[in-house]
Specification:
309 residues, alpha/beta, Metallo-beta-lactamase, Chain A, binds zinc ion
Length: 309
């Protein structure tokens, strides 16, 4: 008769293995979006260090950031559904495993930034964290009716639904390992738009990193940022979101589209050995915000010149 104790130990080990397997599964991407810009956005991008324990793992046109907290990983955004395998490959190339991801934070609920989140959450077992309005959109697989781009239509806007989203309040700091990641609600481009900030250190040298959401006043043909009567609307909220990003402690800006902060140029200069590191740019958040404010003002002028039909 075999001794009992080792057998119980074996069952316990098998049970633990089953739990691990349930939390993480092979990546099963959701259906590709194949939008007009999708192919261009989804060109591969070799992952690279942003600063300290923060890495760029997105595609060439859509950002995703991986932060090693020392006690698990945090991923910000999942780009398109067809980007999820590229992001997973970038994470693997850096020597990490998907099941090490504990949280996935999101910027805004448009398919080009959250389209890959559902698959990455399923494959990693990570908890998705989002603003209250983003959480509603993620559960619906659709931006809300008051989204400036809602008029593009349900089918065009759809993305894979994400269940069990944990809501993070405005100004709340999520703590994991050494990481203190703060959510800043920056509505305007969408009602749930969120920017994220965290300090990261390279040895003794600590810097403030900002994952800034889109501040672009773009919409369908019917939407009016200035409100139906050209007055009110969300313009005032949008302005305060822009001011908020401008005021964040910011040594390194990572916008949701890397081109908004000239990442190609910065990478090229970094490859040539430029010192200081071109990615460390204390004026970048302020310039990003100033450009967004000019665009919003232009847009509001256009709305005044061409009232809603
Ligand atoms: Zn968007």
């Amino acid at each position: 008769m075999p001794p009992r104790a080792p057998l119980i130990g074996l069952y316990a080990a098998l049970a633990a293995l089953a739990v691990t397997a349930a939390a993480a599964a092979p990546l099963q991407p959701d259906a590709a979006k194949n939008c007009r810009s999708c192919n261009e956005w989804n060109q591969p991008q070799k992952p690279f260090q942003l600063y300290g324990k923060s890495w760029y793992v997105g595609t060439h046109g859509l950002s995703a950031v991986l932060i090693d907290s020392g006690d698990g990983l945090v991923l910000l955004d999942g780009a398109l559904p067809e980007s999820a395998p590229l992001i997973a490959a970038n994470i693997a190339q850096l020597g990490f495993r998907l099941e090490q991801i504990r949280y996935i934070g999101v910027s805004h609920a448009h398919y080009d930034h959250v389209g890959g989140v559902a698959a990455l959450a399923r494959a990693s077992g990570a908890t998705v964290i989002a603003s209250a309005r983003n959480a509603q959109a993620l559960a619906a697989g659709q931006p809300p009716a008051d989204d400036p781009q809602a008029g593009f239509g349900v089918e065009a806007n759809a993305f894979a639904k994400v269940d069990n989203v944990k809501v993070v309040a405005d100004g709340e700091t999520v703590r994991v390992g050494h990481l203190a990641l703060t959510a800043h609600y920056t509505p305007g481009h969408t009602p749930g738009a969120t920017s994220w900030s965290w300090p990261d250190c390279d040895g003794e040298e600590c810097r403030d990193l900002v994952y800034a959401d889109s501040l672009n006043a773009v919409s369908d043909d019917m939407y009016r940022f200035g409100g139906a009567d050209g007055d009110g609307g969300i313009a005032a909220n949008f302005r305060s979101s822009i001011a908020r990003v401008a005021a964040l402690p910011c040594d390194l800006l990572i916008p949701v589209h890397p081109g908004f902060a000239d990442f190609d140029d910065k990478l090229a200069r970094r490859a040539k050995g430029a010192k200081p590191d071109p990615f460390l740019d204390a004026g970048a958040c302020k310039r990003y915000a100033a450009a967004a404010l000019r665009k919003l003002d232009e847009r509001l002028n256009e709305e005044r010149a061409a009232p809603k039909p």
